[in-house]
């Protein structure tokens, strides 16, 4: 794995679990996409991007965060942990350069207000073990995993 | 790398250099390139509410088509105006575990097949999404020149 020397672009997404089925339009001119989950007809995740024309990094962050949010839900079910309704996953994907070569790196922040930090950390790491996007990039890109419980 | 036994869902995208195409009832996103304000690529997903797999296919294809452009310029190959990259990302299961796999269809009409194949492979060496998933997911690369 090569370390990025210079960050060229960062795609940031904020993903929440929603049963409303409508897109949230928080920021003026931002692209908000409501995502489907395989096998479920109604939209399950709301993905709020931060600009009208997303970069590849935002789309990738959106894909990863939808999957990761679903993985957190699955793990919580197995651990008998009740997740807060204001759970969110923020992912930042950097496109960077080391010499002439291009690389990606990522920061994942799981926010689960009200859970103990121990349980939140276990949830975050177990979800990272089962999420296919985490597995697809394992060992190839630098990933920082952060947990917030407030 | 684990082989997928059962495919659960596939995200398909069709990415071109042009911004002319607009299909009805689909999610079409105009993508920006870093440092370039105007939309550079058109990403056509195949349903109104995209799955994670479609978003990932869109990200990868935008990057990959840029990599092809970059290498074509370096090799002094003129790309056809109707060049396109179709990517299909499968979410699949093997036992209890979930995995991804991908199929690429690089279409470069009029380009010699060996030149097109060399471009397609070199773009995989350069594209950071290809590098990020190298060795971890199964990727099939198809090159079409007609």
- Overall, the morphology of chain A is globular
Which CATH first-tier class of chain B would you pick? Alpha Beta
Assigned CATH architecture of chain B: 2-Layer Sandwich
End-to-end separation of chain A: 33 Å
Most extensive contact: A-B, 42 and 42 residues
The largest β sheet of chain A comes out as: 6 strands, mixed
The CATH superfamily of chain A appears as K homology (KH) domain
Secondary-structure-based class of chain A equals: alpha+beta
The low-confidence runs of chain B, each spanning 5 or more residues with pLDDT under 50, are 18-26
| Distance between the amino and carboxyl termini of chain B | 33 Å
List keywords for this structure.
heterodimer, A: 150 residues, alpha+beta, GMP Synthetase, Chain A, domain 3, 6 strands, 37% strand, globular, B: 146 residues, six-stranded mixed sheet
Short description:
Chain A has 150 residues and is α+β, with helices and mostly antiparallel strands. Chain A is built from three helices and six strands. The longest helix of chain A is centred in the middle third of the chain and has 23 residues, at 56-78.
Report on the structure:
The complex is a heterodimer of chains A (150) and B (146). Chain A is of the alpha+beta class and 150 residues long. Chain A has one domain (6-17, 53-148): GMP Synthetase, Chain A, domain 3 (2-Layer Sandwich), CATH 3.30.300.20. In chain A, 29% of the residues lie in helices and 37% in strands. Chain A has 3 helices and 6 strands, in the order βββαββααβ. In chain A, strands 2-3-1-4-5-6 form a 6-stranded mixed beta sheet. In chain A, α1 (56-78) crosses α2 (117-130). The radius of gyration of chain A is 15 Å and the shape is globular. Chain B is an alpha+beta fold. In chain B, α1 packs across α2 (113-126). The longest helix of chain B is centred in the middle third of the chain and has 23 residues, at 52-74. In chain B, a hairpin with a 2-residue loop joins β2 and β3 (36-44). Residues 18-26 of chain B have low confidence and may be disordered. Chain B is globular, with a radius of gyration of 15 Å. Chain B has one domain: K homology (KH) domain (GMP Synthetase, Chain A, domain 3, 2-Layer Sandwich). The A-B interface holds A 8-9, 31, 33-39, 43, 47, 51, 53-60, 62-64, 66-67, 95, 101-104, 130-133, 135-141 and B 8-9, 27, 29-35, 39, 43, 47, 49-56, 58-60, 62-63, 91, 97-100, 126-129, 131-137.
